[in-house]
Amino acid sequence: MVCAANNKTTSILTVFAVYLLLQCLSVYGSEAEQEMPALHHVVDVEILQDMRLPKEMQADENNMLVCSTCHGIEDIKNQPYDEVDKNSEDFLRGGPYRSISEVNDFCSNCHKVEDTERLNVHKQLKADGRVDDRYCEYCHQKTPDLEHDTDWKEMKFQLGLNQLCTGCHLENPHFNVAEHRHKPDEKMREQIKKAQKNKNVLLPLDEEEQVTCITCHTPHEKGLLDPETPGGKQTADTAVEKGIEYISSPEWSLVVKNDKQERLHELKHKLYQAQKAGKLTTNEDLKQPIHYKKIDKEILLRLAAKNGDLCESCHSFKD
User: Fold this and answer.
1) What is the pLDDT at residue 36?
2) Are 205 and 199 in contact (CB under 8 A)?
3) Burial class of 209 by CB neighbour count within 10 A (0 to 12, 13 to 18, 19+)
4) Is 6 exposed, middle or buried, given 0-12, 13-18 or 19+ CB atoms closer than 10 A?
5) How far apart are CA 235 and CA 296, in angstroms?
6) Are 121 and 114 within 8 A, CB to CB?
7) Nearest 10 degrees: CA dihedral of 228, 174, 252, 319?
8) Cβ-count burial of 253 within 10 angstroms (0-12 exposed, 13-18 middle, 19+ buried)?
9) What element of type H or E holds 297?
10) Span 199-221, mean pLDDT?
11) Torsion of CA 76, 82, 83, 84, to 10 degrees
12) In terms of pTM, does the model score above 0.70?
């Protein structure tokens, strides 16, 4: 499986980090007596010769990986599953870890990220600018001829458009994804058509005429397609392998700041209601920090989002 979440080269470590974060390793016990949860890291295995563990993560006297190698909770292996304090800062040594990237950093204490990197199928140009067509057929049934195959509707894909994206990416990788997946009304369709003409850009809908991932995002690296054509036009402020970049400490205007605080308050309320209805993945969801990030550099977008150009292609805003 190829994975390119957030437009960055993703590793097996990240996949495992997602699992750890969502499941919080909710079942634990003695490695000798209890069955470990699915995807749990193997235990009672000898540490590889070329693997150097940090001093706070040590193997046992036989150089075997055991529970205490990763976990700081005292005598965790003998605790019943449901009594393990997963909220403890030292559940995983050096914690707490509250995001996928943080858990990924924990895994990289022992594992070399570069040894587990997966392909980024959006990196489609070689260093010399030539097309690297090894990745085309992850999505296309047949590698398109860039000169003659110009109508995307005539192309054959491995899966439906939505399935192509969610085969590698999260189904809801950012705020408001679910709200965008709908069939535009006639007024919005007219606005999209006008935007495509005036901005010389392609904003495709899926097979059911609904807004989908590639309505806003382009799957192709800048330069693969002619940038003067609607399908080739895109915003690219950085390299594909770097992905979108954010400003670490954004300064919002008072109006924008208050608006975002109100939106986050509404979201927290919805999460609380979802928790009461038993619809959250875990009871930890409400404890995860939620905040807005200010975009610094964009990539693989058909139009710029940070200045509202992309949004205005479908939506009308009033003062």
Assistant:
1) 60
2) no
3) exposed
4) middle
5) 12
6) no
7) 70
8) exposed
9) strand 294-297
10) 95
11) 40
12) no
